[in-house]
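Researcher: Sequence recovery benchmark, item below. Answer with residues only.
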């Protein structure tokens, strides 16, 4: 799961980043309006953690811009401004949740997962396609109740493609979502080919009722077989 934290308080930013990375999230950061949109305009996120009190244009202005651009990434406002007016305005502008500071990191993690379940899994804790089952909380994958052993990147690739079932995902989008914005420094997508090859073999060997299709020169699509 890919998270963007927009927060200008360095200690809070690092606390959230380190905590969420321990939960195996891919975390990127921004500290103001300009740095936020340099990422939002290029990458997709499962959830954006947004502080209201930012230098220059505040978090509510970022929400307005997201709405005007038609960007539908999940948003949780995390703010020390625990006012009813800000909460109502933020939710009306399209935020999914509002968490006042200070808060426990465990609660933040739970709210992120709740948003992901609502948006991607229709409220469930797992994604099922044929005899394939993917549990997001435990990051467990099974085929016909037999658990598969996947490395972290194999799981992330599988879950991203499965949550976009029957949709063509181009190689750059997949790389950015699984490896983060540092993917820009990569010379090729050979590392994706390797992970896809291993993942496809594990699924086939265990008779998974899904197919990882390669669309030559473009990307990949997961379909029910």
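Model:
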């Amino acid at each position: 799961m890919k998270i963007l934290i927009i927060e200008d308080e360095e200690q809070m930013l690092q606390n959230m980043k380190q905590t969420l990375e321990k939960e195996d999230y891919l975390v990127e950061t921004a500290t103001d309006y300009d740095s936020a949109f340099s990422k939002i305009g290029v990458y997709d996120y499962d959830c954006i953690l947004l502080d209201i009190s930012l230098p220059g244009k505040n978090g509510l202005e970022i929400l307005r811009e997201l709405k005007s651009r038609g960007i539908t990434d999940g948003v949780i406002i995390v703010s020390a401004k625990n006012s009813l007016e800000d909460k109502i305005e933020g939710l009306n502008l399209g935020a999914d949740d509002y968490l006042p500071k200070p808060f426990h990191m465990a609660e933040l993690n739970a709210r992120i997962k709740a948003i992901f379940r609502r948006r991607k899994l229709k409220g469930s804790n797992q994604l099922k396609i044929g005899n394939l089952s993917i549990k997001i909380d435990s990051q467990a994958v099974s085929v016909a109740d037999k658990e598969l052993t996947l490395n972290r990147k194999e799981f992330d690739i599988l879950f991203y493609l499965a949550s976009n079932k029957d949709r063509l995902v181009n190689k750059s989008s997949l790389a950015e979502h699984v490896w983060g914005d540092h993917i820009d420094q990569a010379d090729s997508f050979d590392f994706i080919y390797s992970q896809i090859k291993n993942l496809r073999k594990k699924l086939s060997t265990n008779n998974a009722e899904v197919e990882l299709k390669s669309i030559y020169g473009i990307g990949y699509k997961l379909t029910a077989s």
